[in-house]
Amino acid sequence: MTETLAETTPHSDEPIPAYPMPRASGCPFDPPPAAQALHDELPVAKVRMWDGSTPWLVTRYGDGRALLADPRVSSQSTLPGFPHPNAGFRENAERRRSFIAMDDPEHARIRRMVTAPFAIKRVEALRPSIQKITDELIDGMLAGPNSADLVSALALPLPSLVICTLLGVPYEDHEFFQEKSSLMINRYSSAEDMIGASDALTDYLDELIGVKLAEPADDMLSELATRVGSGELTRREAASMGVLLLIAGHETTANMIALGTVALLENPDQLAVLRETDDPKVVAKAVEELLRYLTIVHNGRGRVALEDIEVGDATIRAGDGIIIYTGTGNRDPELFPEPDRLDIGRDARRHMAFGFGVHQCLGQPLARVELQVVYGTLYRRIPTLRLATGAGQLPYKHDGLVYGVYELPVTWDA
Amino acid sequence: MRVEVDVPKCVASGQCVMIAPDVFDQRDEDGMVVLLDEKPGAELHDDVRESAMICPAAAIRVVEEA
Ligand code: HEM
Ligand code: SF4
User: Fold this and answer.
1) Where would I find the 4Fe-4S ferredoxin-type domain in this sequence (chain B) (predicted)?
2) Among A121, A208, A124, A136, which residue's Cα sits nearest to residue A167?
3) What is the ipTM of this complex?
């Protein structure tokens, strides 16, 4: 039996599978079966992108972690061979560069300009205000009829309000920046829409930096404006950083709040643990497990090899594109026994949901506190919370670069 | 056990501070790692090893001593 299996392992003369792969219908939380099959049989495999290019897909935890930490592997999206998710990203790579698409030492120099506000102590100091915003949003839900769209009632406004305050972006502009952000992270956005949205957001942040140059406040954009004043950054570079922080700061956490709630409602025994605990350690563990289980940055991390690199049996050549596929890595049974089970009691801290290496998520301490507050509050305050439709009918973001749900109709006992 | 940190490598992920706050802290000005205790007591060894394993930037080195 094992021999027949070995013979059916994909060979180089077989057609290269198209990427990204679809998830199985009825399994909204599991990685696509085709990616799982590569993980099990051909962990470093060529895949075919929308533009015909054929980067390597690296599906195992250990290989992925090693490559993400390897200085021979570049994040520069302007290099030929970089696997872009769509034409808009490819065209935008030259127009708007931010440090997520740079290598050290340039990346480190710029990232360090914005690391201080995300230090653990600074973020912990925000916890009471994050708790207050969460409570107020839940008060708003409970004041209305006993049903709501959890995305617009809580999941999206909470991280948006928090990142607006940190950056110094007026929250009343949220419809504008949320709409432009969603165009920028949709796989099927036309190049025109994507670049239009990127330029509109960059112009918007550029203007705000102008305001902060004239009237500095106690926020991150004012700090960036100071660096523009001293010549450390151009105004466009500062605006570009603002765009990255604004998008990364609200879309990701919002999707974790909503999709995490779906996963918990579908696993009532796990939800019950959260509903009944007031131990912050239990909640913190649950956050790590949900990050692992859902891996919402679900199309992997794009990179380019700068030199030839041996990975297992494969040789990745200098110039080849690489996609480190964290979704299957986070389901590695050696690290996470019974990986397809959501188990909020396990130690999931070694997950790669925030990436690995020097680009590992800058905002992770903030995302963690936001998620700890929401998961630790929502189900306790609304213990009868449930889906208003079947989990199978929800509008999942299969087309998003960040996975989640577009809407989450929920109801509860009045 | 002796702990060493390579500050220039640190990317301020905060992971070590989360796992072993008695051993690691971060600088106010840029969130870079600060070593609080280079010879932590035995009860902290597991957390320190886990921090070194989880550090995304390989900035923490643990030297096991007899
Ligand atoms: C649960 C929520 C979040 C998830 C799952 C997430 C995930 C990720 C991942 C996978 C990366 C790695 C990118 C790469 O390797 O190329 C990343 C980077 C980044 N994230 Fe997050 N993120 C989240 C929340 C946030 C928040 C709240 C912020 C706040 C501003 C943020 C800001 C950033 C930035 C600036 C980078 C680029 C870091 C660099 O290139 O050095 N993220 N994030
Ligand atoms: S875990 Fe590593 S990168 Fe993160 S703060 Fe500690 S030393 Fe720095």
Assistant:
1) 1-29
2) A208
3) 0.96
**Residue B17 host element (H or E):** helix B15-19
Tokens read off for A270: 């796990």
Is the CB of B57 less than 8 angstroms away from the CB of A358?
yes
Predicted confidence (pLDDT) per residue in B27-62, tens digit: 999 999 999 999 999 999 999 999 999 999 999 999
Mean pLDDT of chain A: 94
Output the pTM of the full model.
0.95
Give the pLDDT band of residue A96 (cuts 50, 70, 90): confident
CB contact under 8 A, A116 and B13: no
Spell out which residues line ligand 2, taking CB within 6 angstroms.
B 5, 10-16, 24, 33, 55-57, 59-60
d(CA A219, CA A159): 16
Residue B56 to residue A69, Cβ atoms within 8 A? yes
Cβ–Cβ below 8 Å for A69 and B53: no
Judge whether A133 and A162 are in contact, CB under 8 Å.
yes
B13: closest chain A residue by CA: A362
Ligand 1 atom nearest the C-alpha of A111 is 41
Which of A68, A69, A119 has its CB closest to that of B14?
Answer: A119
Provide the 10 A C-beta neighbour count for residue A3.
7
pLDDT at residue A414, rounded to an integer: 86
Residue B24, pLDDT above cutoff 50: yes
Distances from the Cα of A351 to the Cα of A62, A120, A312, angstroms: 11, 19, 21
Domain borders along chain A are 5-411
- Calculate the alpha carbon distances from A102 to A82, A192, A315, A324, A359 in Å: 12, 24, 24, 17, 9
Identify the pLDDT of residue A13. 58
- Of B10, B32, B34, the residue with max ligand 2 atoms within 8 A of its CB, to mutate for a pocket test, comes to B10
pLDDT value at residue B66: 60
Domain A5-411: give its CATH superfamily. Cytochrome P450 (1.10.630.10)
DSSP designation for B61: E
Q: Does residue A132 carry a pLDDT above 70? A: yes
pLDDT in tens, A274-306: 999 999 999 999 999 999 999 999 999 999 999
